[in-house]
Write the structure tokens for this entry.
Amino acid sequence: MPESAHQIADVLIVGAGLSGLCAAKRIRDKHPSVGIKVLDRCSAAGGNLSGFKSRWITENHFHAVELCRELGVALERRNGAVGVAGGRRRDVTPFGGLVWGPLASLECTRLMAEIDSLCSGRFIAEYPMNMDEFLEAKLLFETSKEFFRFLIKISCGYNPVELTVTDWLKFCQSMASSMSCLYEMLTMSEDHLVPAGGGEWAGLVEKLVEAIGPDDVILSCEVTHVQYTDEDFVMVHDGSGGHWLARTVICAISCNDLFQIQFVPSRPMILLLNVPDSSEANITHVTEFRAQFRSSEWRDQGYSGNLFLPSRRIICFESTERYGLVGSFFHVENLSVIDARQTILGILASTLNSPTLMDPLSFNSNCNPIPFFVEAPFNFHRRIILSSSNASCWYRGFINGSVQAGIKAAILALLEVRPQTINLKDVTDMQCVLFKYFRPQSPLERLWAMVNLASVRQLVAIVSTIVATFRMVRGMVRSLFEWKLQVE
């Protein structure tokens, strides 16, 4: 053990976001004597809880609901918190138009049903084609293709051309065994739950820090090096020159942030982390924004304030604050803060038919790379564990995924430092075995999943070709017969 080390812990957690704090809490609950330290480079705990996937949960998010119950964080319906006076107002969806919009919506709904069917079994079949080829074969309208490409990119960080169909089916299964469920979680729904009162998750973070112990959460401490030593300890270096030793290190940070840390040895990490290709991508970053206005003029125009527009690369909702909109705008890295503000406000003003939205009372934004996801965590003999929602088993990227990832990391760490504390329930809870349902589909559902407008177009083309060929042959036979009569 190096003499220069001045801080020692059984478990060292890098990242005080929701997954890191949940990992620390679960370890503390299972065995209070385990020495824990949580390090974070930011000045406040909580991580990025303003992201487009971190605004609410649903009743199906078992781990998050249970955590809120344990900590006494009351939840309420999202729609109940906002309220809609004067009747139902319309959302802005990708499927506009009187004819083509409903048809595009119909074929998108059908393809979601097909994908859900393909990933609902216990085993995923091998489909070598990439997702872009799959979309071209299955969809007729460009609006539908644009919708799916956008949804795939913002969900997992990869472009459809970078994923095989098998990759995407595995990702959907790990999300919630349903692509339609994924879409519903990104849009407004009556099932969405938020903390009562303000709709913010800061209260949950405060209670987590209190449960762990504020002295064990060290902020403004940036980790720069993580080294696996021969003594079966992991040495961690921070930016101030400090050294930490731990039997197990949990990296509760995103895959993007992992590349800011030097790992020694680095080979396992290089083998398992496949970075998305951003050379030709039209989306690499997301700007989370919150705007406050003098009035909710969009309501006067008949709009709810809810937008999901792949063509404009924006998702937006009416906030719980009075006269406010909150959302996410997706763009390439070289977009400046001023340009992002003007572009976002321009989209809101034109889409919601409210020119005054160009002049908000306040506008706050935060830009980050779109997180990408890995299929499995890496580790050095269970000494270094990846624990962000990127590597969770359930609802990746969402609040429940962060909570579940923390639970998973805590169990893996305890298996190393206090294995006697782990029971069968912990293992099944870690893997979400009890929450994966594989329901056989009815014949009608299978038929609905098989038929699509693109296939109908192909069938019409084939029938048209056959009819044209038949007419051509019939004309040739008739001409030959007339020629024969003339000769005779």
Remarks:
- The first strand starts at residue 7 and ends at 14.
- The chain has a mean pLDDT of 83.
- The two ends are 110 Å apart (CA to CA).
- The chain has 17 helices and 16 strands.
